[in-house]
Specification:
Elements (H helix, E strand, L loop, with lengths): L2 E3 L9 E5 H10 L7 E5 L5 E9 L3 E10 L17 H5 L13 E8 L2 E17 L2 E10 L13 E6 L6 E8 L2 E6 L16
Parallel strand pairs: 1-3
Antiparallel strand pairs: 2-5, 3-4, 4-5, 6-7, 7-8, 8-9, 9-10, 10-11
Amino acid sequence: MHRFFIQAAFEKDMTIRIENEDFLHLKNSLRIKTGELIEISDGHMNTFCAYVNDFKKDYCEAVIGDKIKNTNSVFKVDPYMQDMISAIYWGRNMDFSKMKPGNIFEVKYVFEDEIYKSRVAFGGKEKIKIDNGTFDCYYVMPEVQVGNVFKDPYAIKAYFTTDLNQIPIYVTCKIRLGNVRVELYEYENLRNPLASKIE
């Protein structure tokens, strides 16, 4: 569930108004619909389960339900457990030169207090042009959770240079609202020659 921080007090009938940036995020980015559950935090270490009751033009109302017990989650962490960001850098240590398109390897990662296992598909080689130049790259497609953000289980492509540095220079991601692109705009102190740069 997605959490929203509310500064205003709850109404007597235990409803809350969500407006401004929170409302736009809930409506346009998350595409939450009437009846769906969200988390409401009052900023005082209290978190409540709530469901979206009614959408207006500039705000929506949510009905507050049960209080969620605060817990400190403890995970049994396996070797090489990652989060969403570190998984990309962990990929720099993979020997992509020995892989063939369609090969699958698995990565465990922690996201929103849960442990997931992602099947990562090796896509092969591709030339990528960014502001820093054109590079020969390997690319992989990690499996993601289909839901409010992703509609395709392999919506992300991460590109690594084919030289010994294996720099993650470009990531593209298809989400429900469109496309997100991330590219490396600066690098320094490389351990190996940047042999993958074409121009």
